[in-house]
Amino acid sequence: MRPGKTRKIYCIAMACAMAMSFLGCEDQYQRVGEEKADPVYPQGVARNFTLNYTESPKALNTQDSSHTRKMAVLRSPVSEDYTNLRFKYRTFPEGLTVEHYDEEGRMSTITADSAIIYDQTNVVDLRGNVVMETFDGKRLQAEQLYWDRGSEWIFTESRFTLTNPEEGSVLNGIGMDFNREFTYFNAHRTGGELQVREE
Length: 199
Prior knowledge:
- This protein is mainly β.
- The protein has one helix and eleven strands.
- The longest helix is centred in the first third of the chain and has 22 residues, at 3-24.
């Protein structure tokens, strides 16, 4: 055998041996102490969860029975409460439905496969088949949607489809932010179709 060929076979054999030794290595290191992640458990789990948000037109005292207005109703099969942690939040791993009522009592809805409500930032992270339908028929579909409850502002960086039956339009795009009533919105990258009604 030629010396060059022998050297080539030797190099291939060494490379294979080193690869097998690296692939055979397994992390047997047991993490303990400060580097070990603490398990996180909810302080409570509620099933068939319903939460009503209401507001009163004036401050109530203990004897007052003033009329209150229903603002929203949140329903979910399961709610997990992590408000015992430093950064407080609640999860809805099996989906949720939110009914939102404006001052005239007209209802809009939001549904999602799962959600997280961050208590300290007042932001709701909606994920998976998110559908928002307004009382006047507008429909927004997206894979993820963020709702800032403090500013009543909604935004997404994912793909979306906005259908407006009143205008006969369908708008597709990636990334959008808007107010809850859809009276103002800013679409980032869009394309779509507009149907023109004949008189």
